[in-house]
Specification:
The protein has helices at 2-9, 15-29, 47-53, 57-72, 99-106, 115-118, 134-145, 161-167; strands spanning 37-42, 77-80, 85-87, 110-112, 122-130, 150-158, 181-183, 188-189. The protein is an alpha/beta fold.
Length: 191
């Protein structure tokens, strides 16, 4: 999984997103209490990073997952909504940062560009990897502030526990996710 994500994110192999999106959809479709109508929102990149990369890997994954979900659950209505969540400032790379540093790095980085599209809606937030949850938390809080009814988070992969713990400061306990955020924990663990 690590190699596939690297090919997608760093080498620009965009077709990999289609296959990984199918994997996300298969896990999300199996959730029994998943809302039938949702906004599908990718974690955004800052404008300069997107220009540099030429694409947003989370957007490619979200588009592919939405398409696959429509085939797996005919009763599910997912509206693809890129741009509804925006990153208002550049942040440093999360790699190598502790949980506290990651949260500080992302504090205030995201906002709903059109709160009326989010208000009272259920959201499926898509990203490539869940490491400490700092990105999912920051995005979810921005969406909840804009009035989202619920935020569900799905990723292709989740870092192994020992990798997460290596980022966690020993003196700081991890604060729980916002109580109205539902986490999908079916991601493939990176080896």
């Amino acid at each position: 999984m690590r190699s596939l994500l690297h090919l997608l994110k760093n080498e620009g192999w965009e077709p990999v997103a289609q296959r990984l999106g199918v994997l996300i959809a298969a896990q999300v479709a199996a959730i029994p209490d998943l809302p039938k109508s949702m906004l599908v929102i990718p974690v955004p990149l800052f404008k300069a990073r997107r220009r540099e990369r030429g694409f947003n890997q989370a957007e490619l994954l979200a588009r592919a997952a939405r398409g696959a979900m429509r085939n797996l659950r005919s009763d599910w209505e997912g509206q693809f909504a890129p741009g509804v969540l925006a990153r208002q400032r550049a942040t440093e790379s999360q790699a190598g940062l502790s949980l506290h540093q990651r949260r500080r790095n992302l504090h205030g980085a995201f906002f709903a560009s059109d709160p009326s599209r989010v208000r009272d809606r259920n959201v499926l937030l898509i990203d490539d990897i869940y490491t400490t949850g700092a990105t999912a938390r920051a995005c979810s809080l921005a969406l909840r502030r804009a009035g989202a009814a619920s935020v569900w988070v799905a990723t292709v992969a989740r870092a192994q526990r020992r990798q997460i713990e290596s980022f966690r400061p020993e003196t700081t306990a991890e604060a729980p996710m916002h109580q109205d955020v539902a986490m999908w924990d079916g991601g493939t663990t990176l080896q």
